[in-house]
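Entry type: protein chain
Record version: 2
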Amino acid sequence: MLREIWVVIKTVGLAAIIALLTVQFVVQPTIVEGNSMEPIVSNGERLLVNKIIYRFSTPERGDIVVLKTGDNRAEYLKRIVGLPGEEVEIRRGLTYINGEILEEPYLKERMIGEFGPYVIPEGNFFVLGDNRNNSLDSRSPSLGFVSVEQISGRADFVFWPVLEFKVLAGDYARP
């Protein structure tokens, strides 16, 4: 009897360790708070965030990423729009990368306001919410350009609600 109890304790303990390591280093469920990524991702939806992807590859334009602020308490969900070394500018509601208009069919509505031009520093990215008129993003001095160290992972899937399941990674996240 004691042997069987010990086997159960070891099994439950091992499962807990594996689950903890998976959430810490591989994939993490996250709840979306706010409307800054509408219409692609909405408030209250649950995502799976791939936390290991950027150990083997670099973030790409169009990736929807989770980032941490300087104090590591707040997390934001944003889309990578500009890459290191590129010039970014927003004028007349359009985003320009190196002087070329960026096609953004995922936007909720046309953007209000102007920004730049600025060159994105090496090791940094320019991120925006898809709901540009309701988003705290790289246009704000309080967030600014985002370093690769601030990116904690790429949002790959919306898994809840089940009827709203969608793939966010790869070509599905980009125009």
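Comment: The chain has a mean pLDDT of 84.
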